[in-house]
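Q: Structure for this?
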Amino acid sequence: PKANMSAEEAAILTHLSSGPDAVIEDTLTWSGQSKLDHKAVVGAVKSLQTDAYVTASDLTKSYFDLSAEAKDILANGSQEIIVLGALCEAGEAGISMPDLQAKVGKNVCKIGMGNCMKNKWAKKDGGNLVATKALADVSDEVQAHLKALADAGGSESAVDAKTVQALKRRKLINLVTLKSYRVGRGESYAPVRKKKAADLTKEMLDSGAWKTTEFKQYNFQTLGEKVGGGYLHPLLKVRAEFRNILLEMGFHEMPTNKWVESSFWNFDSLFQPQSHPARDAHDTFFIKEPSQTVSLPEDYYDRVKTMHEVGGSGSIGYRYDFKREETLKNLLRTHTTAVSSQMLYKLANQEGGFKPARYFSIDRVFRNETMDATHLCEFHQVEGLVADYNLSLGDLIGTIETFFKKIGIEKLRFKPAFNPYTEPSMEIFGYHPDLKQWTEIGNSGMFRPEMLAPMGLPENVRVIAWGLSLERPTMIKYRIKNIRDLFGHKVDMSRTRMAPVCRFDDLNTE
Amino acid sequence: GLSRSLKIFLGDMDAPVYQLTAPDKMETMTVQQDATSTVRPFVVCAILRDVAFTPERYASFIDLQDQLHRNLCRQRTLVAIGTHDMDAVRGPFHYDARCPDDIEFVPLKSSDDTAGQAFTGRTLLEHYETHPDCKHLKPYVPIIKDSSLYPVVLDNENVVLSLPPIINGDRSKITLDTKNVFIECTATDLTKANIVLDTVVTMFSEYCSQPFHIEPVRVNYVDAAGTTTKSDVTPALSTRRVQAGVDFINSLIGIQETAERMVELCNKIQLGPATLEVGPDGRQQMLEVCVPPTRSDILHPVDIAEDVGIAYGYNNIVKRVPHTNTVGGEQPLNKLGDLLRDEIGRAGYTEVLTHGLCSVRDNFTALRKQITAAVSLSNPANVEYEVVRTTLLPGLLKTLQHNKSASFTAGFKLFEISDVVLPDDRHAITGTVVGARNERRLCAVYAGPTSGFEVIHGLVDRVLTLTEVAPEEEYGSNSTKGDEEKFRVAREGWCYTIRELTAGDADAGTYFPGRAAEILLTSPSTGGERVRIGTFGILHPEVLSAFDVGYPASCLEINLEPLM
């Protein structure tokens, strides 16, 4: 076997060859004498140590080095003492700033005067600086501390930690760490290092050398190599799992690739009155260009307008003047229900008439809100709905329970809520096994008859629906506190790399 | 209000019955409809007699008005409430709209330096717009500022009581000693005005010496000739009787309550007195309830059903799963996107999710592109959000910028599959043309010690292989395709090639000269023509520096929709 040693390894092993008790007393001084780089020597010692060629005991020491300024203080006293001396000399009348600068020097004046004021050794009297303490009444603590350190060879124990901090802050001292080792022979010492093989190679297989080669011990406590490859985004992993769940439940995905929407579909078709506060610019992104919807299904528009203005199908309506310019205003959709509405309209008007359906979507919605740790202007809404004859609130509760059970939330409570386009409406609360507490997890309701009737759905067709954000369950699942760490360009790619697979079936196994 | 509802629910108290009193002489409000219709057409009024104000009730009275102004009244644009000490003024009252310079009055104190000072309509609005102490009033100024006439409420001596929807007069201000309160609600929406007035009087008539008694006011609308065209008695205190089928309620909520039990529940939740009637078909049992003026939210029998459901308790409803028989299905475009996400992830790219809203700089100028049409926002709360992106690239470059500390030595690879929005005034969905459409894109970036142009080029070929598109004969004929090529699976009539992007091309500026290409697809739907579906290349150094990226980088951006 060939000896492939570094120059430093060879020098160390040679030095130790003089006898079993041969030692290098201190690698630092030895490197100097041997004209070797000390860092490389330390590396060689560590490498030899792993194969037990040498033993090494740590001589590493730290000490405080005094700066030039500190040495000056040691000789002449601290700046504040020099300044106080000058002030005392000037007597009760004091001395002007320029005169003081001329006398003690600009730097000493600046630092010294600052400390004198802080220590209340001096005051400003008109334009002049006047001493308030006699030189004899104060002591030069800084000088004393520096002397104590210098006398102890910079030892850390010479002064207390608070003093060290204060001196460091004044940039008077600096901690220096000197690594060095005492090195002796190890149990496997040999004058020449035989390097053990780290890995099995093709050459070894071809030549059969693997039979005689000595292999290094493997450190089983180090992590394996990174697998490389690519990584999927945590929110989109959750989206994929939610899609799976909804598909399993027989839901059909809605085409939600439409961010720009008319107020008509986003609000009016849902029977949300034109004066509703959610339609304020504070909540909704209105569009400057193209500002207006070009065309609408006019028959349906008329039926919606009538429903708002005078009601129908058992409703008294909102009784106000429905404005066309308001309905045509373009916006970024505030909910995917804008698409659900279109799907229901199509369902009512498809060839062969209405057929029961289950629909879902997971896509972006936009709110013109102030952003904080849990709110962004864009987020993903998960929405599911079932349209069928004579559905009840009991069906909604049952459907919601099936869904949430699949994402690991089994205990649910329902609370009445107000929502302009559903009646009845329920807030969904769940006991979250990850958070170990009850929390609001979604919203739900039955679409109002005033929304369904103008679409042309049969009278006893009811539509139950529920929704939640995709971000919140993802933040809980991946322990993310700030939404900016999940969505947007500020996400740390390391977080994406470390995100586990998305499964919910492990939540309730305790 | 809340404690009253609780007492009634628990049966400790009967639901209040609101009554209009019959005064000897009813107070009147005359509306000059030709003038008011130009700015704020409607007014409704009521009087509360012998109110016992305490500091708490007074504060709650002010708070109720603030709440209503904020919500129902939509920041006073729809309705504005004015309340006056009835003993400081005298009817008959008038509601008119007058030239701003002809209006003279002393408003409630809004700043110390102007207490008791008289203003004209015009000077008052200017004062509120500019005075630092009047910030709370400034938002309402634009509601009438540009009208040629400003609305005013006047007393019998033509003294201005209030300048709605801005401020009331000082003379008639409510104090703790006020006994009789005159309330006027001016409005652009009469339905809302009635609801607001009903809410105020039902909440505060409790503190009248005769609780729940309200004195009405006659409101006469007169035209220019002085002819009365309409005469209302307000408040409307609209109490309606509404019917909802017992079977309907049971079916909607999913319960089996008896009709008698429903009557009991309705009485508890202030929808009483409830009765049972026979439906129009002569058989169906109908629950008839009384909707008090406080319940303007009840529009339809479903609202009655909801209240019954709430009284029953949502958590007591027996859950069931709808027997609806349906088959699940995915949107093909989303399915393709998810399949490609998996494959591109396997190819070593890390997925990002970036914002759809960005600045004009990021979307155009920083990419060395001409500013062209994009969907722009009219009122963003965040100044950075000027447009909806027309390209995914800025999001990826900003991600690189924020991950500077990551290792680039082996190449840093990112991708995103998401939507951009493009102006389009022909694209119709559900009979609706909004003037824009989404487009599903794939964007990928490589950044490292070298540009990685060939790495990105390889991804282009990979994506087209995955979507069953073969290279044109000519394209790739110089490279060693190896044995792999014989395993290619491609769709009949689908092929692609790449071509250098010419210097004058709109997308060329983003790329390094001579290192930019377009991807051309031929498919049955392109009619045998080559159609550009995307571009790729080395990013121009000025683009990199605009996004503070310190490494050479290449990128591709492809429209996925033609690959469906």
